[in-house]
Every structure is written in C-alpha cells, then in structure tokens.
Amino acid sequence: MNIAMTGLLMALAGIASAADCGADKLGTARTLTLKREAALFGASQHAPLPLKKGEVVLTFDDGPVPETTPLVLKALADQCARATFFMVGANLEKSPELARRVVAEGHSAGVHSQTHPHLSAMSVPEQLNDFRQVQAAYRTVFGKTTPAYRFPFLEETPAMLGALKEAGITVVSIDLGINDWLPEDTTDILVQRLVKSLDATGGGIILMHDVNVPTAQALPALLKLLKQRSYSVVHLEWD
C-alpha cells in the first residue's frame, strides 16, 4: 500500500471516529490558524497565544516513537482531542510512517531539533547544522517546510532565534507543563501536577512528552481531568 493510500485510510478512520464524539468527550472546541511567520508564543518566555479563559493547547515533544506515540494517539482519539507534536528529526527519520499517521489523524506537527541537544553548549555552526538537518527530515517526511519549532529544553539561543526568524518559522514555547520525564512517575502524580499547573495558570499551552511511558499511560486520566474542569481544547494549525 502506498503512502497516499495509507494516509487516506487513516484520515477516513479519523472521520469515522469523530462520529462517536459526544458531549461526554473532551473534544476540540476550535482551531487557531496561525500565519507562517517568525512569531514567538508561550507565556513562559514570550507573548501568550490569543486564547480565551479556560482554553488549553495540547502539545507533545520528542517523538514519534513506536513504543508510546500510538498510545498517545489512541487516548486523543478516544476523547476527540487534537494536539500539536514537536518532533525530533532523528525520530522522524526512524519512524516516518508514524509521523505521517500523526498528521493523518488530524494533529499538527512542528519540529524539536534534530537530536535534542543543549544548543547553548554547541557552536553556532553546530546549532545551524542541527537546524538544517531537522528541516530536511521534516521536508522528506511531509513534503513541506515545518511551520513551527520548539527549542529543546526550552533553551533559546540568539543564533537559532535569528535562523528561525529568517526562515519565517514560529517559535512555540509553553505556558505550563507537568514535568513528565521521570520514569518513576505514576498517573496520580501526573494528574496532581496538571491540577497544580492549571490552578496556577488557568490554561494555555501544555507541554507533555509522547515518548514517556508514564505520560502515555496517564493521558486518558489527564484528558478526563480537563473535561471535568470544563477546559476547552484549541488546536493549532498554520496557513
């Protein structure tokens, strides 16, 4: 089966599953379409997105990986919620079909560097080479230029900010997270962290990691928490 047919079947499956989206599901309240430009968003470092009170944007970093990303996709599909995945170039190269599946199921995709390095510890030529590599990986998988970039470790550098501005690529930082990178985390711990972060911020761009096993396991509970607290999901797209 060729790539186009695979994508079509996945998209049709997504349309079919949308028919099961009732009032008991978290859902996706609206889509916020951003221009393909060198904007900077995320209240932890930049201006906030134009969100209303009680709105959240679901984002996942570091994938795609076959061990956990499909579990994340299932949890999102079960709640009819759409997210943005910031993908590492090396994982794009390893799992291109899975990356295309993410987008075929209605989610959007940006990049998160090629190898997830500490960019501030690299020379400027090394930083720019990493950027060129992840751009190439994204273009090979999706056939177009990435619209958005999230810095690894949220560590911004002048050289990369300049390169992203020149390329017209939006930087997406975060408003809140759940610190979900510890292998000993449990669902209860991650739920408690989400509650604490939501209480502090009232919503915004949520950072999670689709490569983390505890996150994949906890996501159904995290999405149900958002529903119980009457949060609305906003999906990011780029024109």
What features would you describe in this structure?
It holds the Pfam family Polysacc_deac_1. The chain has eight helices and ten strands. With 239 residues, it is an alpha/beta fold. It has a single domain (35-234), classed as Glycoside hydrolase/deacetylase (TIM Barrel). Helix 6 (158-167) links the parallel strand 6 (148-149) and strand 7 (170-172). Helix 1 runs parallel beside helix 4, helix 2 (69-78) runs parallel beside helix 8 and helix 7 (187-201) crosses helix 8. The radius of gyration is 17 Å and the shape is globular.
Supply database-style keywords:
239 residues, alpha/beta, TIM Barrel, three-stranded parallel beta sheet, 10 strands, 42% helix
Outline the biggest β-sheet.
7 strands, parallel
Q: Let me know the average pLDDT.
A: 93
Task: Work out the radius of gyration.
Answer: 17 Å
Give the fraction of residues assigned to helices. 40-55%
- Count of alpha/pi helices: 8
Helix-strand category: alpha/beta
Straight-line distance between termini: 29 Å
Q: Spell out the CATH superfamily.
A: Glycoside hydrolase/deacetylase
Percent of residues in β-strands: 15-25%
Topology pattern, helix = H, strand = E: HEEEHEHHEHEHEEHEHE
As residue ranges, the low-confidence spans are 1-19
CATH class: Alpha Beta
Query: What is the number of domains?
Result: 1
Shape: globular
